[in-house]
Amino acid sequence: MKPPSLPSLRVPRARAFSATPVILLLLGMTAWSSWYTVPSDSVAVLQRFGKYQSEVQPGLHFKIPFGVDVATILPVKRQLKQEFGFYTEGATNPDQYSNTPAEESPMVTGDLNAALVEWVVQYRIAEPVKYLFAVREPGATLRDVSESVMREVVGDRTVDEVITIGRQEIEAEALARMQQLATRYTMGVSIDQVQLKNINPPAPVQDSFNEVNQAQQEKERLINEARRDYNRVIPLAEGEKDQRIREAEGYRLKRINEAEGDVARFNAVFAQYQKAPQVTQRRLYLETLQQVMPAVKNKVVVDENMQGILPLLNLDPKKAANKQKNQQEAQP
């Protein structure tokens, strides 16, 4: 008698298991996660099991996949910025603005007035290793440092200085203090510029501050106009003064030279007079006549023995004029 046959076990084709797609998927994920690209304006900080390994320069690089190696890319050649009191749409830096910008702008000045201050901090990542490992959340820390320094600098000045004439001093002092604190905290950043944007008084007193600002601008305009007139008039007056002085000096030298020449000429004539008085008197008499006689229109030469000269003078000007006219008509 034959024993009963057992039914044969057959696996359905739909339930058949194949490891080939899984292996291919794992290989693809491994290849995909084992390489990375560092942009030209950045470097990558490579960590293996969380420990720092090296700084990787721009280009295509490979790493151990599945989280063994982690590459953090930092834009060291790009200038980053942080905005305070406002924000710009489309920012790529996650630390560029805070969630509550309206709470950052109100500040108290040194004269116990209020002002709404908006500013921008521009910085670069100078030391990537310190930026990642020396300070927890370096971007947020830099924001706290910037806000603290700006409130301190603004609190040392009056509201008029903050709104009008003290902007450059505030920017320079805030930049120096921020860089000093960033170096002390080993944040690995280099602060390039601190720039004040809009500085306004609170809304209830904004109209009054605008009037004060306009008055300050009018004052500066009048001062500039006065300086312009000063620079135009004063050099002209200085030039005229120098010209008058030079003319006076020239006139003084001229009179001195003329006087010295007259003295020398008189001494020379006097010396000749002492030698021959009569000759000198006659020469002086003749020289004087040479100067005087050309200016005399009518000349009458008489003998020294003559008793009178009235017969020789023409005392009737009308008769003399008629006689001269007749002579002219008589001439052909």
Automatic annotation (TrEMBL):
It is a single-pass membrane protein. SUPFAM superfamilies: Band 7/SPFH domain (SSF117892). Its main location: membrane. HflC and HflK may interact to form a multimeric complex. Gene3D superfamilies: Band 7 domain (3.30.479.30). Keywords: Coiled coil, Hydrolase, Membrane, Protease, Transmembrane, Transmembrane helix. The keyword Protease applies. It comes from Thiothrix nivea (strain ATCC 35100 / DSM 5205 / JP2). HflC and HflK could encode or regulate a protease. GO terms for biological process: proteolysis. Residues 33-213 form the Band domain. GO terms for cellular component: membrane. This is Protein HflK. Residues 205-232 form a coiled coil. The lineage of its organism: Bacteria, Pseudomonadati, Pseudomonadota, Gammaproteobacteria, Thiotrichales. It holds the Pfam family Band_7. It is found in: Membrane. Belongs to the band 7/mec-2 family. HflK subfamily. GO terms for molecular function: peptidase activity.
